[in-house]
């Protein structure tokens, strides 16, 4: 095992430095020793090279000095791998595979999105890659293997630049790097030398991932099974959840930026809403606002639900007209450096609340604010306990508005949980228990909602209303931090926007 000095620091110790996050003392353009076709080593400016994702030397307007991905340094990625290695038993490995390219039809592909656990540990944002964190007998040392697509001039002509095998070591700090096409001859020895293998390959949507690299050609269902049949295999996800649920300061800064920009875009959309005639126009403005103001993309397919469309919690068709007198429920957010924000606001399309709309909105907002105020470590809360508080307050508030909640009435009107963890995923750390105490620097949403079917069971003037109010929140020690507080929220704030 080789690892003790962080790889981001080892670069400064080499006579010819490998291309890594640029050290603060560098005075000359960062260079890399690269093998030419004639087999001779030459120094090449990193800015003159092409990689499969933005780097500071090629995209200084996106990546700051020292960062490997937006807001996250190469050193932090090393610490993440080291933290995982500490959780692994001795003589074990963690095996991860990159997300595949998803195809819409034929050769037409969707925008690429890396597997969050793979991205969290490597910062590598290309498909067809495998990472192995190998722990030996030491508690602190590990070996990082990264297998990637090789540079290929013909393929890159069509599909864009690849980082290649050399960059896997020199940019992404792998101790051992290799061609993904040769992994079938390398990986068996790594696995056979491990007493335990931690992986999510074979679980859920990753079930058939990675097979083609083991047997070539089309995926073979039994490729990985044969490889692991004599190994002790455990699921990696629980260990990754324990790491990802607690956010570093760098992660929080990414989420603060995403939250602040997304909230401001929401507020502008509220101000402009009387000019929209369709859900799709509103959606287009939000998407444009996120990207034009510095975010990478939309965090997820948004809900833009006018009128009774808001009764469907995950309504994403977003193809209806917006009508005078209705409200519109918008659940959307932007993404920065892989980190997402999650906001929901409900507001009147004409800019003015009717009395029933204001009564329902005011009640719901009080419930949301009461739960947000408890998002502190010293409040000794869990997601489930916050949900119970939301249910109690909604029950009281709805009864005051004339609702009969007998026979599971509240379950009909409020059918979802009050919140979830957020981070690299919209529902971050999937499977992490909602019964664990919330700790400082964990991030969650608070999103109570009320969805009143058009049914005689409910008061007539509230029928057909769907409302939800949601913010992204950082758990503080003694004080709450709302990451999305730039989004107007009170009824008065929203109505005041109409005249601006």
From TrEMBL:
One of its GO terms (cellular component) is mitochondrion. Keywords: Aminopeptidase, Hydrolase, Manganese, Metal-binding, Metalloprotease, Protease. Residues 72-208 form the Aminopeptidase P N-terminal domain. Its EC number is 3.4.11.9. Its cofactor is Mn(2+). SUPFAM superfamilies: Creatinase/aminopeptidase (SSF55920), Creatinase/prolidase N-terminal domain (SSF53092). It is an enzyme of class 3 (hydrolase). Catalyzes the removal of a penultimate prolyl residue from the N-termini of peptides. Belongs to the peptidase M24B family. PANTHER family: XAA-PRO AMINOPEPTIDASE 3 (PTHR43226:SF4). This is Xaa-Pro aminopeptidase. It comes from Hortaea werneckii EXF-2000.
């Amino acid at each position: 095992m080789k690892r003790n000095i962080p790889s981001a620091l080892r670069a400064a110790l080499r006579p010819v430095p490998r291309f890594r996050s640029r050290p603060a003392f560098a005075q000359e353009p960062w260079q890399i020793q690269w093998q030419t076709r004639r087999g001779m080593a030459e120094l090449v400016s990193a800015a003159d090279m092409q990689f499969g994702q933005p780097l500071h030397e090629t995209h200084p307007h996106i990546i700051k000095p020292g960062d490997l991905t937006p807001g996250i340094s190469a050193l932090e990625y090393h610490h993440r791998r080291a933290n995982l290695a500490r959780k692994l038993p001795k003589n074990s490995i963690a095996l991860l595979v990159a997300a595949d390219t998803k195809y819409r039809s034929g050769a037409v592909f969707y925008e690429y999105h890396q597997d969050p656990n793979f991205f969290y540990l490597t910062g590598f944002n290309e498909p067809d890659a495998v990472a192995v964190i190998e722990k030996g007998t030491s508690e602190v040392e590990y070996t990082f293997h990264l297998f990637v697509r090789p540079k290929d001039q013909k393929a890159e002509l069509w599909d864009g630049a690849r980082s290649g095998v050399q960059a896997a070591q020199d940019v992404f700090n792998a101790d051992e790097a290799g061609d993904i096409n040769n992994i079938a001859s390398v990986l068996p020895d790594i696995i056979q030398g491990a007493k335990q293998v931690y992986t999510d390959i074979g679980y859920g949507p990753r079930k058939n991932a990675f097979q083609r690299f083991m047997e070539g050609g089309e995926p073979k269902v039994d490729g990985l099974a044969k490889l692991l049949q004599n190994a002790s295999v455990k699921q990696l996800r629980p260990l990754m959840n324990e790491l990802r649920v607690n956010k570093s300061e760098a992660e929080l800064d990414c989420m603060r930026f995403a939250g602040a920009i997304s909230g401001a875009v929401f507020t502008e959309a509220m101000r402009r809403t009387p000019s929209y005639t369709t859900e799709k126009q509103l959606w287009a403005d939000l998407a444009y606002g996120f990207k034009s103001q510095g975010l990478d993309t939309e965090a997820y397919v948004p809900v833009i639900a006018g009128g009774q469309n808001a009764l469907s919690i995950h309504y994403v068709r977003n193809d209806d007209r917006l009508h005078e007198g209705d409200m519109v429920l918008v659940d959307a957010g932007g993404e920065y450096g892989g980190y997402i924000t999650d906001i929901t606001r409900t507001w009147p399309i004409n800019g003015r609340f009717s009395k029933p709309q204001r009564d329902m909105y005011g009640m719901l907002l009080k419930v949301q604010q009461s739960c947000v105020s408890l998002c502190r470590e010293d409040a000794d809360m869990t997601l489930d306990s916050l949900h119970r508080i939301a249910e109690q307050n909604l029950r009281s508030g709805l009864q005051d508005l004339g609702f009969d909640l007998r026979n599971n009435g509240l379950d009909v009107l409020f059918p979802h949980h009050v919140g979830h963890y957020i981070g690299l995923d919209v529902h971050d750390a999937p499977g992490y228990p909602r019964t664990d105490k919330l700790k400082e620097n964990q991030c969650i949403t608070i999103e109570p909602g009320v969805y009143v079917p058009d049914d005689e069971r409910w008061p007539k003037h509230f029928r057909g209303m769907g409302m939800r109010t949601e913010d992204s929140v950082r758990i503080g020690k003694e004080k709450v931090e709302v990451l999305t507080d730039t989004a107007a929220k009170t009824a008065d704030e929203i109505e005041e926007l109409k005249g601006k």
